[in-house]
Amino acid sequence: MSTRPDYVRPLDIKHGRIDMGHGAGGRAAAQLIDELFARAFHNRFLGQGNDGACLPAPPPGHRLVLATDGHVVSPLFFPGGDVGCLSVHGTVNDVAMCGAVPLYLTASFILEEGFPLADLQRIVASMAAAAREAGVPIVTGDTKVVEQGKGDGVFICTTGLGAVPPGVEVSGANARPGDVLLLSGSIGEHGVAVLSQRESLGFETSITSDTAALHTLVAAMLHSAPGGVRVLRDPTRGGLATTLNEIARQSAVGLHLQEAAIPVLPQVDAACELLGLDPLYVANEGKLVAVVAPEAADAVLAAMQAHPLGRQACRIGMVTDDPQHFVQMDTRFGGRRVVDWLSGEQLPRIC
Amino acid sequence: MSTRPDYVRPLDIKHGRIDMGHGAGGRAAAQLIDELFARAFHNRFLGQGNDGACLPAPPPGHRLVLATDGHVVSPLFFPGGDVGCLSVHGTVNDVAMCGAVPLYLTASFILEEGFPLADLQRIVASMAAAAREAGVPIVTGDTKVVEQGKGDGVFICTTGLGAVPPGVEVSGANARPGDVLLLSGSIGEHGVAVLSQRESLGFETSITSDTAALHTLVAAMLHSAPGGVRVLRDPTRGGLATTLNEIARQSAVGLHLQEAAIPVLPQVDAACELLGLDPLYVANEGKLVAVVAPEAADAVLAAMQAHPLGRQACRIGMVTDDPQHFVQMDTRFGGRRVVDWLSGEQLPRIC
Amino acid sequence: MCLAIPARVIALTGPDEAVVDLGGIRKTVSIALVPDAAIGEYVIVHVGHAIGRIDAAEAARTLALFGELAAQAALADTSTMETTTWAR
Amino acid sequence: MCLAIPARVIALTGPDEAVVDLGGIRKTVSIALVPDAAIGEYVIVHVGHAIGRIDAAEAARTLALFGELAAQAALADTSTMETTTWAR
Amino acid sequence: MQPGRRYNFMEFCGGHTHAISRYGIAELLPPAVRMIHGPGCPVCVLPIGRIDLAIQLALQHGAIVCTYGDTMRVPASHGLSLTKAKARGGDIRMVYAATDALRIARENPDREVVFFAIGFETTTPPTAVALRDAERAGLTNFSVLCCHVLTPAAITHILASADASEGSAAPLDGFVGPAHVSIVIGSAPYEPFARAWRQPVVIAGFEPLDVMQAILMLVRQVNDGRAEVENEFTRAVSRDGNRTAQALVDDVFMPRDSFEWRGLGEVPHSALQIRPGFAAFDAERKFPLTYTPVADNKACECGPILRGVKQPTDCKIFGTVCTPENPVGACMVSSEGACAAHYAYGRFRDIPIRVEAAAGAAA
Amino acid sequence: MQPGRRYNFMEFCGGHTHAISRYGIAELLPPAVRMIHGPGCPVCVLPIGRIDLAIQLALQHGAIVCTYGDTMRVPASHGLSLTKAKARGGDIRMVYAATDALRIARENPDREVVFFAIGFETTTPPTAVALRDAERAGLTNFSVLCCHVLTPAAITHILASADASEGSAAPLDGFVGPAHVSIVIGSAPYEPFARAWRQPVVIAGFEPLDVMQAILMLVRQVNDGRAEVENEFTRAVSRDGNRTAQALVDDVFMPRDSFEWRGLGEVPHSALQIRPGFAAFDAERKFPLTYTPVADNKACECGPILRGVKQPTDCKIFGTVCTPENPVGACMVSSEGACAAHYAYGRFRDIPIRVEAAAGAAA
Ligand code: SF4
Ligand code: SF4
Ligand SMILES: [Mg+2]
Ligand SMILES: [Mg+2]
Ligand SMILES: [Mg+2]
Ligand SMILES: [Mg+2]
Ligand SMILES: [Mg+2]
Ligand SMILES: [Mg+2]
Ligand SMILES: [Mg+2]
Ligand SMILES: [Mg+2]
Ligand SMILES: [Mg+2]
Ligand SMILES: [Mg+2]
Q: Which Pfam families does the record associate with it (chains E, F) (predicted)?
């Protein structure tokens, strides 16, 4: 981030568009940073104006966590959110899923030539609000501009830095047979909200994305049963099914689900039937799945249900011993099946 | 990064291309990560396989530095480097310019559908080599795939975490009148090397990009004169001229350069004349400019010249008192002029 | 093959066009293939087209039959499962 | 206006086409406008075209004249400046 | 159920295959009942050569090829698929409805737009609507690569080959008849072969309970020695079907003499082509395309599986070389393909759920 | 130099303006010599209406518009510029040579490609080569929007207005003649007006020493009372110029009756148009374009500055509202424009270099 050079006319946010000059590192780039990004994200670290942000370290005994994600959602605005708040929540959550308290975020923007400044400002405002609400400042950033046809409006890569308090040990490798699987709420809303806005699929729904920062929920869970939370993960791309397969593989265990226990909003179910999708594979952005020690399950579940983002939390299954690391599910019809990894893309189907 | 699921056939690196499935978060994405990224970047942090990397904190007394940059160079391969090593050097350098020792990197890839896996592997290998050479591991990452025509091959956003040792105070705001301006070597090679590969400008040259990680040079400089280095900055986008204007503005000083002291390779000069560019505005990726206390200048310069990346280091000017924060330059013809910020893009000109 | 779902017609919006409701989501579909579909009626929707209608009386009969079958076969002991208000 | 630079012809590569060298960089240019340019000769290149040639004898004369002028005007006291081997 | 008797039923329709797998219905059936997955997934039966045509249209003729999501990953020649052809620069767009392809044609007047039309009788009428609308609108840049196939012809073919050579087709005791196909064609078309081959047919809905009920009805017919067409799906299927749809399909399409099915080979009168009156919208006439039949991968058992002679686990490369990620045969492509359904939903069968003794807590 | 005498010289050419600014030459001249920046930057003299035409071609006619980098940022009507029109979806491509535009036309046979050609006599012959080659190759999708202008006509116009009304133009004592223009046209074309208006002209190269030498030669002519055309740039400029280039230009182009110059208004016979024989390649005939003259911003003093009557600092909005980042007038666009050159290189003049007393170290 740089300091204000001597340009005079303010950005024409209303009618202006990103042009190649905004990415060239000169006066136009500095103006965009100052008037749009720095103004919205304002905090003392960002204000340092150097090549990076210099930050106080966490207290001794803490370990650090770094997590990064690129955000490329299409459309950029969807019911319940936009790429801006998503880019904050997505990374705050990844930091939190490591058992860490998120402290700082960085943001790298790749803007497409021709993108309306008004839309960019909306996205940046949403991002700033999400960061403020989460209490995690955006301390440094970058802006690049690519030619029209070489980008897609806005891509935002965020990186989060967090600190793991002493005593917390959370990892996808820690699940043990007998552990309990908890889910913080209903699945599939984010993916369905985004799909509902795609021109060729377009349907009307009141479903909104569940995008949210989960770190305070995680803090409540960790606090409720010290040492009892073994795995935390947010079932984003690939949905719950893919996340559970990751855990099974990483911990070298099997998982056994109860389909009837997995909450799905009727509208989400209906949209999935319409498009030939399976809600188990649809993305979430404000949900987490936890593997907890059996003796801690009740306490953790109670803590989740006491948190606004975990009110609908429930047990959905348990960890089993399975050399093939399958995720199996008792269907709500009473049968049993394997819940596999997502193959390829999950495409709307006709049959 | 995720663990290896049960796919069977290895990636067809030779003929394969990125398709939408590689970004969908399922089995194809996991395979790409395992066989291409994780294999190349291999380190114990990346191997954790969680949503983020859990890392030891630096010793007490250190401050942290976070720096981030998106890398969108076109063409992706250029004489002397490619987007892969660039994305390591660019961020390692930004961390170093804050006076920090770079410790860890994160990498977020945005891949365009249709991108050849062979090219991706080359880029990843180059990135891995650069990280290894710099001694800064890539500890976590992300991969997204966008449709053809919504990206440009590969974009790489990297974020670096570093630690500032106690006693080091480097910032663009610290320049004082009377301080000395040092430059680590000749300017303009990176920008000219990239331009030489653009179809419509194409010319043959033996100029190669100067892309390099500068943190060991910085360490040597800081060590040579404790407290004597006030400002460090790498003159990347916008070139030396823009970087110096940033420093002048941020420190509220003027700068006074000697054009004759600024090293430019004859080939770079020739290419700039051909294209109507000014080398002062052309990007560098392995150079730094330093503002040092007058009494420290000799020691720091000697330390730079003793380092392989600073052999051609020289004094190029001094800091002055100027309420307008102009960068002025005595031309090699003996006149004097203002060296302004870059305006818009630096476009090749005919007149 | 042939993913199709029952949906209720809630508005006739043009020649050959209707809006249907399906568990709370609304979609405009073609009724070129069931031109006399009426508001309130259930149609079967496939690739954006209503391809047939549901006979209300027969649907009721099937539902009753399913009740029997479920009882007969004791298909699943769902009483032991935790469910939530929106379990699908 | 009209950025143009002198460059040395180093190869004739086709009808109306030559490769020129300019301070170590090589570029293919059109010689449609100076069709009889010869290898070794200096041409003036503008927007990818050689638009004229440099007269070697005249160039030498000008150089000598510049020497005089520089001496006369003491244009810049460069001796006090630090320079490097590749100072431009 | 009669003690000692075995019941081999074929669910023709991929939708039923999917329901059986997704809800774990096979597990709930008595051991004597065996379900055989039939060729009722339109993606699975599409031969490589037809997908090659669609890829040709995109890569060689520069057309915008619109298609349902299901066909995107089907393996074609040269290691390609529509997904991979798209990654190689083909302008291939997934649509949800044929009318989306029409819209794309209107929006791109200077490009050729081809709708790659697949599916059984359920999906054919919407394509007919699109063709009728394209003609009414006078579109000149829209055409259809027609791959619509016919259910009764395929069932007849399966029964004929079962009859012709013991062992080369499964000994069948009855059919679960398609749900949505039957909404359009009605139950009457099944009557001739139920009679001719003495095969019970029960048309069933797609809910798991529909399928269970239909199987029960089939068991009863077998036990009673009946071979009738029964209709479990009375709430949507009549004897005559949807006359409007049938008439429109008849206006636009006519039967082909013969059509290649993956796994079944050439089947006479088993598919539709566009009538000469709509020739301007027929991609096969509009573009210089030549159809080249392509032999399936030698290891692939899709053919016998589609004919009901083998099961996915009989294939040597099932789950090892051939997986949903790298499908070799078409049965692995659509999640309703017999192999994909078994891979995704059925593999648990050899693996009992074990929880360590220490872990007694509830799940 | 004669004591007490003032010497007002106009460097016609933007290249000389640039050299004077970049090397700080003005500082090195004796105070009695004042350099006036002339209208010799082809971007600066391009009227808004011509850029509007190029934008129309891209945005309304969907053409690929190819242009030299210099024109990208020139302000046009409605707050646009080619850079901003590109951001609004216009397919506008920067090229280094006219032949690149030809290549783009060959690569995009189904698109119209227009080369937006600007420049003086130096840049015209390459455009002529491109037009000749396009005709030889029989390209049907390539055309040129010709904005080539003529140096002698502009100089004559300036002298005529200086003559016509005292004060409306600067009292000139001589011209630094263009370097590269003269390579093409030779030194002879300057002779008539040197004679007619009794103005010394010295053709100069672009090296700073060339310019210094030319100024010295002008001072000598003034002191001697001579008004001749002298050639400092003998190493490249002859009396006749480049006959090959002149002949080719003559084949392809012919003079316009009149052409609008920004700052100078309509100047008779001051520009070229494409000959009827090449009409198929003339964008002004090929596309339905109408030229609408657009008044410059009222505050802008580009006109008087281009005529040599005012200096950049005489403009009220110089450096405040009008900056290189937000150019109001054309003189701020190209770094060779008089205002941009003064903004970028000249602003230090009011600010002496101060170093705090404590800091005695070397720089
Ligand atoms: S496993 Fe694959 S190759 Fe084998 S039969 Fe099934 S689809 Fe064909
Ligand atoms: S400063 Fe701007 S508005 Fe004023 S004369 Fe110069 S270009 Fe025109
Ligand atoms: Mg992540
Ligand atoms: Mg995330
Ligand atoms: Mg995550
Ligand atoms: Mg940056
Ligand atoms: Mg786009
Ligand atoms: Mg940076
Ligand atoms: Mg950097
Ligand atoms: Mg930097
Ligand atoms: Mg990620
Ligand atoms: Mg591209």
A: HypD
Which of these ranges, B36-45, B222-231, B337-346, has the smallest mean pLDDT? Answer: B337-346
Rounded distance from Cα E86 to ligand 12 centre (Å): 13
Which numbered ligand comes closest to the C-alpha of B144? 11
Report the CATH number of the F48-149+242-286 domain. Answer: 3.40.50.11740
Span E193-223, pLDDT tens digits: 899 989 999 999 988 889 999 999 999 999 9
Interchain contact A/D (3 or more Cβ pairs less than 8 Å): no
Tokens standing for residue B292:
């040092």
Interface membership of F131 toward D (CB under 8 Å) = no
Closest CA to B113 of B28, B199, B3, B37: B28
E10, F122, F186 from D59: Cα distances, Å: 95, 20, 17
In sequence order, the β-bridge partners of residue B143 are B109
Rounded to 5 degrees, φ, ψ at B210 are: -90, 10
Q: Which residues of chain A approach chain F closer than 8 Å at the C-beta? A: 6-9, 12, 15, 17-21, 27-28, 31, 113-114, 148
* CA–CA distances in Å: residue A42 to residues A8, A130, A141, B171, D36: 21, 13, 12, 19, 65
- What string of DSSP letters covers E200-261? -EEE--SSHHHHHHHHHHHHHHHHHT---EEES-TTT--SS--HHHHHHHHHHEEE-SEEEE
Per CB-CB distance under 8 Å, the chain B contacts of F345 are 337-338, 340
Please compute the mean of the pLDDT values over residues F141-153 and round it to a whole number: 95
For A310-341, the pLDDT digits (tens) are 999 999 999 999 988 999 999 888 888 889 88
Q: Mutation target for A interface from B8, B68, B93: give the one with most A CBs within 10 A.
A: B68
What are the residue boundaries of the structural domains of chain F, listed by start? 7-41+151-231, 48-149+242-286, 302-362
What range does the domain containing D73 cover? Answer: 5-82
CA of B142 to the centre of ligand 11 (A): 4
Residue D88 lies in a domain: no
Does residue D59 lie in a domain region? Answer: yes
Fold agreement between E7-41+151-231 and E48-149+242-286: yes
Q: In the structure, which protein residues have their CB atom closer than 6 angstroms to any atom of ligand 1?
A: E 299-302, 305, 312, 315, 317-318, 322, 328-329, 331-332, 339
Task: Report the predicted TM-score, pTM, of the whole model to 2 decimal places.
Answer: 0.91
Query: What mean pLDDT is predicted for residues F253-277?
Result: 93
Buried b (16+ CB within 10 A) or exposed e, D39-77: eebbbbbbbbbbbbbbbeebbeebeeebeeeeeeeebbe
- The fold of the B20-164 domain, in CATH, is 60s Ribosomal Protein L30; Chain: A; (3.30.1330)
Q: Which residue reads 């290898």 in tokens?
A: D39
User: CA of E61 to nearest chain B CA: how many angstroms apart?
Assistant: 18
CA D82 to chain centre: 27
| Distance of residue C51 Cα from the nearest chain A Cα, in angstroms | 13
Classify domain F7-41+151-231 by CATH number: 3.40.50.11750
* Interface confidence (ipTM) of the complex: 0.89
Residues from chain E that touch C58, judged by Cβ atoms under 8 A, are 234-236
| Tens digits of residue pLDDT in E12-57 | 887 888 788 888 888 788 889 988 888 877 888 888 899 999 999 9
Q: DSSP H helical segments within chain F, as ranges? A: 14-22, 25-28, 42-45, 48-59, 82-87, 98-107, 124-137, 151-164, 180-185, 191-196, 208-224, 243-252, 283-286, 302-306, 338-341
> CATH classification of A180-338 is 3.90.650.10, yes or no?
yes
Predicted pLDDT at E1: 67
